[in-house]
Design goal:
two-stranded antiparallel ribbon; seven-stranded mixed sheet; about 675 residues; alpha/beta; 13 strands
């Protein structure tokens, strides 16, 4: 079954279309691990009458840590040679978290960070599942020791006590998984929602002797049904939403059935397939294969671009080479060392050295090779046409102001290969964001509105901005316009949450906190502190309950309803047409192509077709009291969107403006808003 588990994970990561749920291989691993480790602990209890924690953790250290440390150090090498510099610092901390078996909590925290959630996947993120296992084994042996002590006082019922102990772990864990997994993306990674899967494997180990005596006529169909359930889960499950709740029962109970009834089924059961030599070998190297495949995939993707299925499968196949070498020359020699077997404390010291070495390597990588630097510069500004080689005068004003009043015909907006300077520095672009520093931007968890006031607080012209992070990236521009024109600007923004009365989905889960936040913001807007005019914008989101094929039309319909209801309450609405959306991180691309910036330019038509803009245009068309303002000519003026305009980096990622560039849009935004405000 270990071969099945690792192959599901590998094929899923390679993008096999018929295995959208390949990630269930991790659930299979958890059940297998719980079964194997609990079985070893019970054997020791039966043979010696006690458990030695030193011996147990020495075995874990020998089994896991040398290979893990090897791969983590290799991961840093791959990062240095293949990953963009913008990811180096994050990768260093990922390696440290992985070495300390805390990567699952780091991933859980990032899943709640809307900005981080859009970043490229971590090259070390697969260590989260190993962290879950080791955290479980900090608890289970201690509980088993207590249960073993109680069992020695009783002549019978020893196994019942062990099952009771497992139930103490499994029942609350599964209940908590059911509670949080439908709406909480962090539920996928945290130990508290995963412990029941390991406990399920432990329960099979406790009852293994009894289950092995199952009638063959019962065992054979149940074992095969279990294997089919695992395979069907990988084929039919298409999202991690709901994991590890009810959706995880298919792969976990299926694995439990194979383990429980496989021995009684004999060669008539799944052993007919799983007992074949190639699968046995893959199962043997499954740990090393799991460790190696993901870093190689991420490195290949960073170097070659988006990988197709065939290319990804080739990388996965190649990962078997370092996996086999690690298994034969690192895993086995350490695990089977007679010296370490005879001296468990020495094995613990070896494990400690491996952990410290990997963590220290990550720390030194972070300190010695910082991922941020000062503004990038070249000696000249190249001509304002792609590929030009003649030096031209620098633009007269920074950022969008370099485009003048006719941006579509301005040479300053055409992508070029080199510029004299870039502000902010591409490697620091992610920090150039309004929401990074504002205490009033609401995260994905909270539903309590937080307002910030800018401009002239006692002004008679009261403007409110409401929306998601795409509304937030307009704050520098709006703040400048408000200060220039003497308006009072109140901002209400929440990550991943458009201003909409309908419920949306986030990561395939109902976004309940967004729905409640919108209700509360609406009450404030229509209350005693109501503004004179509402400005809103947002990215693209799926409306809950609508098929993907009707996503845009459903969004337009619900936007129209929302805006119409506000106009009916005598609150006019200005919609800022959503900004272009790219399929790559522009700041990261710029950091890697300082002398070939044109490589980072996206076709304007493609970038404008994505995002929330099309739905906004449809929703606003012909709607009285709603005005659509489109400033994208000052954001992407040419046929391809230049990454740098007027010496300013336009994008901090794939779809958010830098705060610096946003601020340069203030005069244009103020001019565009004046007609709507004049009608008040």
């Amino acid at each position: 079954m270990r071969a099945v588990a690792v192959l599901l994970v590998l094929l899923g990561h390679a993008g096999i279309h018929h295995l959208p749920g390949g990630f269930v291989g991790v659930d299979v691993f958890f059940v297998i691990s719980g079964f194997l480790i609990t079985g070893l602990l019970l054997t020791e209890l039966d043979q010696r009458g006690r458990l030695s924690l030193v011996d147990f953790y020495a075995r874990r250290a020998k089994r896991l840590l040398p290979a893990a440390a090897t791969v983590l150090v290799a991961t840093l090498v791959l990062t240095y040679y293949f990953l963009p510099r913008g990811r180096w610092s994050t990768t260093a901390w990922d390696v440290i978290a992985s070495a300390c078996y805390a990567m699952n909590w780091r991933m859980a925290g990032q899943s709640l960070d809307y900005v981080a959630a859009t970043d490229a996947p971590s090259i070390a993120q697969h260590f989260w599942s190993l962290a879950v296992e080791e955290q479980f084994y900090l608890v289970w042996p201690l509980l088993l020791i207590a249960l073993g002590f109680a069992a020695r006082r009783r002549a019978r019922g020893r196994h019942g006590l062990y099952l009771f102990g497992l139930a103490l772990i499994a029942v609350p864990s599964f209940a908590w998984a059911l509670r949080v997994s439908p709406t909480g993306p962090s539920a996928y990674y945290v130990t508290t929602t995963r412990m029941w899967e390991l406990a399920l494997g432990g329960a099979i180990a406790v009852t293994a002797t009894w289950l092995s005596r199952s009638p063959r006529l019962v065992a054979v169909p149940l074992a095969w049904a279990g294997l089919i359930a695992v395979g069907a889960s990988a084929v039919l499950i298409r999202t991690e939403a709901g994991f590890p709740g009810y959706a995880a029962l298919g792969p976990t109970l299926g694995t439990a059935a194979v383990i429980a009834f496989g021995p009684a089924a004999g060669r008539a059961g799944p052993a007919l397939l799983l007992g074949r030599q190639p699968l046995l070998y893959v199962g043997g190297i499954s740990y090393s294969l799991y460790l190696w495949h993901w870093p190689l995939l991420i490195a290949a993707q960073a170097h070659f671009g988006e990988l197709g299925v065939v290319a990804a499968l080739a990388v996965v196949a190649v990962s078997a080479i370092p996996a086999a070498l690690t298994y034969h020359f690192i895993e086995n020699p350490v695990r089977r060392s007679p010296t370490l077997a005879a001296r468990p404390p020495a094995a613990l010291r070896v494990g400690a050295v491996c952990t410290c070495a990997a963590a220290l390597a990550g720390l030194l990588f972070h300190l010695a090779i910082p991922s941020t630097a000062g503004p990038a510069s070249t000696s000249v500004i190249m001509g304002q046409v792609p590929g030009a080689t003649t030096q031209a005068a620098p633009p007269p004003a920074p950022g969008a102001m370099a485009l003048g009043s006719s941006p579509r015909t301005s040479r300053a907006g055409v992508p070029v290969d080199r510029v004299a300077s870039i502000t902010p520095a591409p490697l620091a672009a992610k920090q150039d964001a309004s929401l990074q520093n504002a205490s009033c931007h609401v995260d994905v968890v909270s539903s309590s509105p937080k307002a910030c006031v800018h401009g002239k607080p006692d002004s008679t012209t009261r403007v409110a901005l409401v929306g998601d992070s795409h509304a937030d990236h307009w704050i520098p521009a709006l703040r400048g316009a408000a200060e220039t024109n003497g308006w009072r600007l109140a901002t209400y923004t929440k990550s991943g949450c458009p201003f909409l009365t309908a419920e949306i989905s986030l990561d395939d889960r109902p976004y309940a906190s967004c729905t409640e936040w919108n209700r509360r913001v609406r009450a404030e807007l229509l209350g005693a502190d109501r503004p004179d005019i509402l400005i809103t914008t947002h990215s693209v989101y799926p409306v809950r309950g609508e098929p993907e094929s009707r996503s845009q039309s459903a969004m337009a319909r619900e936007l129209r309803k929302t805006w119409s209801s506000l106009v009916a309450e005598k609150l006019p609405v200005v919609v800022l047409r959503d900004t272009p959306l790219h399929l790559k991180d522009i700041a990261e691309c710029v950091s890697e192509n300082l002398k070939r910036l044109a490589r980072c330019a996206t076709p304007r038509a493609d970038a404008l077709r994505l995002g929330g803009g099309p739905a906004q245009e449809v929703a606003a068309k012909g709607l009285t009291g709603v005005r659509l303002v489109d400033l994208n000519d000052w954001i992407c003026p040419a046929n391809r969107c230049a990454p740098v305009i007027g010496g300013v980096l336009v994008w901090r990622d794939a779809h958010h403006l830098t705060a610096t560039y946003s601020a340069t849009l203030a005069p244009r935004l103020g001019t565009a808003l004046k007609p709507a405000i004049a009608e008040l």
